[in-house]
Amino acid sequence: MGNGLPVRRDTLILYAHHKMCICARVAPNMSNNDVNTSRMMADYLDRIGAGKVLLDRTPFSFDWTPPELVGRDDELRGLASMFVGIENQGVSGRAVITGPVGSGKTVMTRRFGEDLQRALDGRRRLILAHVNCRNHPTASQVLQEIARSLDSGQPERGFSSSEVIQSIRRNLGAHDAHLMLVLDEVDVLIRNDKGDLIYKLLRIDEGQNRQGSLSIILVSQDTSLIKLFEPAIISRLGESNMLTLSSYGERALTDIARQRYEKACRPGTVDENALAKIGRFSAESGDARLAIELLEAAIIRVEKDGRSEVLTEDVRPSTLRAASVEPSQIDELGEHQKLVLLGICRRLKKADAVSSGDAQKLYNLVCEEFGIKPRSYTTFWKHLKTLEGIGMIESRTANASVGRGRTQHITMTNTQPALLENRIEKEFL
Predict the structure, then answer these.
(1) How many degrees, rounded to 5, is the angle at CA 320 between CA 317 and CA 323?
(2) Does residue 116 lie in a domain region?
(3) Closest CA to 215 of 204, 226, 224
(4) Nearest to 67 by CA among 4, 115, 102
(5) Which of 125, 353, 399, 413 is the most buried (most CB within 10 A)?
(6) Sign of the alpha-carbon torsion through 16, 300, 275, 289
(7) pLDDT over 90 at 360, yes or no
(8) How far is CA 148 from its chain centroid?
(9) 3-state class of 92 per DSSP?
(10) HEC-encoded secondary structure of 251-284
């Protein structure tokens, strides 16, 4: 083949890219340019380095429940003490859990529920229902979510609250089951309905032959949550059934980062000093979510560089944020607000900022991708302002680089764009 590289017929070039194979069959008459292109592709894929560190991204999700909770042994024992005798028919449990953002309230209730369900297997049928009241802020919405956890065919409309409660009773009785209900961010519900629904749920067995139908765990960031309840509710919950979680310390945050690394990555790919640095950076806020985000950001950075180990310098304080973005904040957004945010996130994964003009173009592209008609520029601008108002994005005004006038530059400092991108995409795919 002249001065070109010798190429054998049916030579197969295989490049692995984290569960993806790219194969190119080299033709007998392949030119020098084609061969060079193939070699460039090989270099390109090598530089990506996908899979050199990361095996499974799931442990970085806010919704992932670890097999063991780090640094919460005493709290778990305290919670378990509130459910003594739960293995017996007719017995229910009550608990109120409060604590700051990132203290592990939600993951603790999920872990406890799954462990309890497993422990009661063969003795008592336990059904788990976890309702986020920020996503479902009205009594009717909460009841519908509870009913659907028992019967996926439950109609969404057409029934009063009393009728839905009766349906819940019937389903529990028909299946001889006990419901473990977690109401997360319950202060949102309480402020909307004054605690009326909680009072009704606590009395669900009154006048019934069957007792012990429902256990309830109330979760909130508001440490003064108890003050929102009427005395009748406090009496039924029991003032001794209160559990307050403190913020995580440096050691616990380091251990949390280590746990996520061990579940998500290849062994030996994250330096111990890097984990210690994550613990140190996130200790100021005590927020476990921040520790997880710092770890994920460092891993992504290493993967992009084509390296196979996360070192101390890969953990960058610039990733540190003042406050966590709650996953539920994403869920609360309207459809087009999510699409605007998705376009911005995709650009900010690769750039430090995006102009408002480019943000609109990205929004239009995202709408086209999912077959949704984009809204007008005026509506798009209102969505931008809404996202800025709730802290999802930040903007600054600067002189335009071309022509006259000024332009808005959009950034995101409260979280990692990739985290929001993944969460939003799940809704539209």
Answers:
(1) 165
(2) yes
(3) 204
(4) 115
(5) 353
(6) negative
(7) yes
(8) 22
(9) coil
(10) HHHHHHHHHHHHHHECCCCECHHHHHHHHHHHCC
Per-residue pLDDT at 10 exceeds 50: no
Kindly state whether residues 296 and 261 are assigned to the same domain: yes
Contact between 293 and 415 under an 8 Å Cβ cutoff? The reply is yes
CA distance 139 to 186: 11
Tokens at 180, concatenated: 């473990």
Structural domain ending residue among the three candidates 244, 259, 275: 244
Residue 217 and residue 296 share a domain: no
Question: Looking at the structure, do residues 348 and 212 belong to the same domain, yes or no?
Answer: no
What is the token pair recorded at 245?
């979680």
Q: Can you give the residue range of the structural domain that contains 35?
A: 12-48
- Please report, as a single letter, which amino acid is at residue 51: G
**Of 374, 379, 349, 351, nearest to 361 (Cα)?**
374
- Contact (Cβ atoms closer than 8 angstroms) between residue 172 and residue 150: yes
Q: Does residue 82 have a pLDDT over 90?
A: yes
CB 125 within 8 A of CB 175: yes
* 105-119 vs 73-81: helix crossing angle, rounded to 10: 60
Over the stretch 214-241, which tens digit does the pLDDT of each residue have?
999 999 988 778 777 888 888 889 888 9
Total domain count, the chain: 4
